[in-house]
Amino acid sequence: MKDKKAKSSPGLIAAVIAAGAADAILLVLLVLFLVLPEAGGGSVEADVPEDFTANSDTYYDTEYESEYTSDASVSFSEGSVQEGGASDTDSGDPEDGGQYSGFVFPDSDTTLLTDEQISETVTDAATCRRAVNEIYARHGYEFTQQENIDFFNQYDWYRDMDKESDMEKVSAQFSKTEKENVDKLLEYEDAHGWN
Fold first, then answer.
1. Are the beta carbons of 164 and 170 closer than 8 angstroms?
2. In terms of pLDDT, which residue wins out, 87 or 151?
3. Distance between CA 87 and CA 62 in Å, rounded?
4. Handedness of CA 178, 179, 180, 182 (dihedral sign)
């Protein structure tokens, strides 16, 4: 038997090349049709109100009839701002405007408390409980005791956050540092018989 080899005819090759070229030309024409503006050389104009003046020099001369009012206040105190927003120069007075001013341990969410810090700062049951509650407040715990509600509601960040009354759900959000600090404070509270 003789092998029959398929022979390509030069006409067939030319037809395939011509078809590919035609496809390329059609693609280019389609892109140009979609991208270029309509033929006719006209320009498109936007509907602009008659009293509108683009980049008017008179914008600076405009007098506004009403003032913008806000209950928010902005304050800045010297010193570096720590993670969590506490400033290292907060005096502890909530009127200073520091995010955690007035807290027993303003950085207990990011810094592990030492036994020495706790013993120097926590001198009674109320202070110990406040130090624990600070960590819960940062995560939106909804307090039931009026004393805690009043204390933490003085902070905009606390008032404006969604609240959760389930203590376990709140503590599940704690970082490792916060968990260790709560445990350490609760142990300190137990050791002094304050619980």
1. yes
2. 151
3. 40
4. positive
